[in-house]
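Q: What structure does this chain adopt?
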Amino acid sequence: MTMSRVLVTGGGRGVGAAIVRALAFGGFEVVFTVRTAVAEAEALIAEIKAARPEAVLEARPLDLADKGAVDAFAAQVAEEPFFGLVHNAGMSYDTLAAMVDQDKAERLMQVNYWSFVKLAGALIRPMSRARAGRIVAIGSIAADVANAGNAIYAGSKAALAGYCRTLAIEGARRGVTVNVVAPGFVDTEMLAPYAAYRANVEKQIPAGRFARPEDVASVVAFLLSPGAGYVTGATLPVDGGLTAALAIQR
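A:
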């Protein structure tokens, strides 16, 4: 098994693109999935190769909401050598907890949670045989702190964190680490609906600003580095101190 090949879900834009960039510049070979961001993925590959001609990158189409497609993709990558898996892809669904549409909620759970379970299950076997592997899931501080209208998204990220803790202890003796990176507010298109509230939200974040995608990508890159070999079963907040702060301000 090559010690440098990583699969990243949802790598075409936003945090995913920043992760692909950080790993490619860190010397990893990167395979990343895209659903609609095909043009952005091509531009990202061109940008990286212009700065690092020897970089090995590949974008593959995958709709994580399509259970059959995920099953087929998981069977395919299980036969390939991967040192790392980063599950970045995700979707949001805002509605009050008492008004949840189950079909929409199940679609979100398929993308945010079940697709990761399937891919991690496929890749941890060869990682275990090689006694080397790194699995990172992009969670959210929403898994631990409540925000009105966020029940299903928060539930999916809490499920992701719980699964990762168990997978971590199951894989630890075989050289596979499993961790969660939990961002707070990140400056991406996903937060565009909240643009009107941005200034007010930023005032409540101790660091005084939203995270940049690169802030999240740097922590992911660390977890795939040799220095993180003894870090497993952890959730690392990347939230500018938001969850450490008392919500009520004097």
